[in-house]
Amino acid sequence: EKGRVISVKGVPEGCDREKIIAAIGAFFDVEADQVNDKLMAYVDYSRGQSDAAIRFKEANDKIQDFAAKLADGTVKIDDAAVTSAAILEGDEEEKYYKDFIDFKNMH
């Protein structure tokens, strides 16, 4: 299913997966500890990286809205705006899933 992965660039320094999850929870009005269970959202991010990906199990209209609000700075991560945020499409989306599957197969 297309349109389920948001690429986030320019994640604030000192960020961690929990801070990204908190931003998702606040936007979707879900407790942070329920983001994975209720939204089926997974944050692909490791401390120190400048980029992240947010993968949702199912596509929905609010994902596009969330990406747009992250991109324009309305939604912040750890009180800071990110450089850019967009839903992956086409080759970029295919590459993300290929890398993800390769990573899973290695572990």
Describe this structure in words.
This protein has four helices and four strands. The protein is of the alpha+beta class. It has a four-stranded antiparallel beta sheet with strand order 2-3-1-4.
What brief labels describe this structure?
107 residues; alpha+beta; 4-stranded antiparallel sheet; 18% strand
Q: Could you give the topology of this structure?
A:
Elements: E1 5-9, H1 17-28, H2 35-39, E2 41-44, E3 51-56, H3 61-71, E4 84-87, H4 90-106
Antiparallel strand pairs: 1-3, 1-4, 2-3
Put the structure in a nutshell.
The protein has 107 residues and is of the alpha+beta class. It has helices at 17-28, 35-39, 61-71, 90-106, and strands spanning 5-9, 41-44, 51-56, 84-87. 42% of the residues lie in helices and 18% in strands.
Tally of alpha and pi helices? 4
Give the beta-strand count. 4
Low-confidence stretches: none
**Beta content:** 15-25%
SSE run: EHHEEHEH
Query: Which word captures the global form?
Result: globular
